[in-house]
Design brief:
Elements: E1 4-11, E2 15-21, E3 33-36, H1 43-63, E4 67-75, E5 79-80, E6 85-86, H2 102-112, E7 121-125, H3 126-137, E8 146-151, E9 155-161, E10 164-165, E11 182-183, E12 186-187, H4 188-191, H5 194-203, H6 211-219, H7 223-247, E13 251-255, H8 266-275, E14 282-285, H9 289-306
Parallel strand pairs: 1-4, 4-7, 8-13, 13-14
Antiparallel strand pairs: 1-2, 2-3, 5-6, 8-9, 9-10, 11-12
Helix pairs in contact: 1-2, 3-9, 5-7, 6-7, 7-8
């Protein structure tokens, strides 16, 4: 049983994943506990859902006499991470909690449960938390320059160099991300995501499927499904080309649901990079995107407590 712990949440548009980690970054639950996000409900319902989830896990640990060290929440953007305020609006998820101070909500909830008012509560971009988890403790541990790309409903990204997050450099925006970079008549967020994958599927006359069923079809040796992923790999390499040239990472790590299909994308990705005059770095997928994200939250919480 853990004596001291961090409660961490990875909040997504479809699911909320939760685990409890100790200072050694070991998870309390063998598998992350998953909840429906309820991201399209009204404000009261969303907040009550968050409260119920947080309360449930705090009570479990409280009954066992464990000490809460901090709470970390990974959230997609746009979001005011420093103040814990959601800025999402018009993107069909969490619209109802626009400008709600979630940090203060959580603080009031835990105070009523008897926890200290000084308990650290942090919010962080989910792609950034993922990158930290893999950079310090995961597949990129020991690498200096690492590029992290999450492929899901959008394209998340974080570049790390000399143990720091890179921003406003190598062609990145002020947040250190690539999502708004123009690409193929749209943006990277549109083309290097589930939407971009489905566009390629449609062009190959593969219809009425989502990313998961496309993955299952490829697993079952469906040639058309495997071709779709291969072409998507080429598209990813084309989109990342300018960043690969300027940043020259030692390792490229993919996370998110689509990264599970990397084995059908990696060859075309490497071929396209080579064709572009780039020596491909080591390319791999995260073993567990969400657990890496939660581990990254613990790293941030520990850093704050050191100050």
């Amino acid at each position: 049983m853990f004596k001291r712990y961090y409660l961490c949440l990875d909040v997504g548009g479809t699911e909320i994943k939760v685990n409890i980690l100790n200072k050694q970054k070991q998870p309390f639950y063998t598998e992350n506990i998953c909840y429906e996000s309820k991201a399209r409900l009204d404000q009261h319902s969303i907040l009550q859902h968050f409260k119920t989830i947080i309360t449930e896990h705090l009570q479990i640990m409280n009954e066992n006499g464990a000490q809460l060290l901090g709470i970390g929440v990974a959230f997609p953007g746009p979001f005011d991470y420093e103040n814990g305020i959601s800025l999402m609006r018009g993107i069909r998820k969490y619209d109802a909690i626009y400008q709600v101070n979630l940090k203060e909500c959580i603080r009031q909830w835990i105070i009523k449960l008897g926890f200290q008012t000084t308990t650290p509560i942090i919010f962080e971009n989910d792609a950034t938390s993922f990158a930290k988890g893999e950079y310090y403790y995961g597949v990129a541990k020991g690498q200096n320059k690492a590029m992290f790309i999450t492929l899901g409903t959008g394209c998340g990204s974080t570049f790390m160099e000399d143990q720091r997050i890179v921003k406003n450099k190598y062609g990145l925006n002020e947040a250190g991300m690539v999502y708004d970079t123009p690409f193929l008549g749209g943006t990277m967020d549109e083309c290097l995501s589930a939407k971009g994958l489905m566009e390629i599927a449609k062009a190959n006359n593969v219809t009425n499927v989502d990313g998961y069923h496309l993955f299952v079809a490829a697993e079952n040796r469906d040639v058309r499904a495997q071709r779709v992923f291969s072409q998507f790999g080429t598209q990813i390499a084309q989109g990342l080309r300018p960043f690969m040239l300027s940043f020259a990472p030692d390792i490229l790590v993919f996370g998110g649901q689509i990264s599970q299909s990397l084995k059908w994308m990696i060859n075309s990705m490497q071929e396209q990079l080579t064709k572009s005059g780039i020596i491909p770095p080591h390319i791999c997928a995260s073993r567990n995107t969400s657990l890496a994200t939660l581990t990254g939250l613990v790293q941030t919480l520990e850093k704050i407590q050191e100050c």
